């Protein structure tokens, strides 16, 4: 009985037509994988390019990653060889690298899609399906033009897709290049703002001493009123174009970050040590202070860790020596501002500056009379 049942089961097993895993089946599975990879790469680069160029708040994952890796590599090399001027070229290197990353991802993603079908690309004369290298060549050629005719799409559907990538690829590359125009404009404005801040004073204490009229600091009001708007504009520019953070200048008069830190420190000294009746009016100080706060908010792209930085010491020695009436600061106010000052120090550390350099001379003393520099 058991023998008869097993025999029938074997006969039934042999009669079932199981699917056979043939070479064509494996190729079709590979084709699907190529198609999925291509779509994922194109989706990633399209989102990154569009978000980076059109979003008013920051950069996409690819742009941010490229910027961070290149900056940290150059920063490490500048420390290794003790040559800080190496960082001067970081900004342009990062900009070019981002553009190349976008172009290469567009190229690679479309190449994978053309690999997903044997008939996607054929020789225009023999109609023989193109190989790997030919498909990569065909893809790259069509991203900027319609090709030169030695290879062509094999079917109507692929011909339409070829026209699409030629059109969209040219648009995306143009958008990427156009993105750099406001970046270069913002760099010029950034340098001008830095020089403007430095002209008030080359250190926090000098900014105050240069504007002490013998009884108060009201002379600073005109400076602060004129600085609030350009500082706010720079904050928004750095938020929209985070690559601006990586344009480093070793010349202090053109380096915005140490001079902006000096300006903020001067305001902090005013708020902590100077009696309210001797400061500039609050309706002048507050807009400038808030503009600097907005700028500090754009630093999120730099992955700063203020908690790992110790707040710098407050230096008012020159003010004390000048017999300017100062008051003892409130401990609560000092503690309240510690986080802000740690962020400023972390910002300078990331950009390759030391906190002591905030008070360093900016202009060349050989270029003018001592009282002019």
Number of strands: 2
Poorly predicted runs of 5 or more residues: 1-27
Global outline: elongated
The total number of structural domains is 2
Helix content estimate: 55-70%
State which percent range the strand residues make up.
under 5%
Largest sheet: 2 strands, antiparallel
Integer average pLDDT: 84
Kindly report how far apart the N and C termini lie. 111 Å
Structural class: mainly alpha
User: Order of strands in the sheet with the most strands?
Assistant: 1-2
Supply the number of helical segments.
12
Tell me the radius of gyration: 31 Å
Order of helices and strands: HHHHEHEHHHHHHH
SSE arrangement:
Layout: H1 2-15, H2 23-54, H3 61-80, H4 90-114, E1 121-123, H5 132-144, E2 151-153, H6 156-200, H7 204-209, H8 220-240, H9 256-273, H10 282-297, H11 317-321, H12 331-350
Antiparallel strand pairs: 1-2
Helix pairs in contact: 2-4, 2-6, 3-4, 4-5, 4-6, 5-6, 6-8, 6-9, 8-10, 9-12
Keywords: Ion channel, Ion transport, Membrane, Transmembrane, Transmembrane helix, Transport
Transmembrane segments: 32-52, 89-115, 160-187
GO biological process, one term: monoatomic ion transmembrane transport
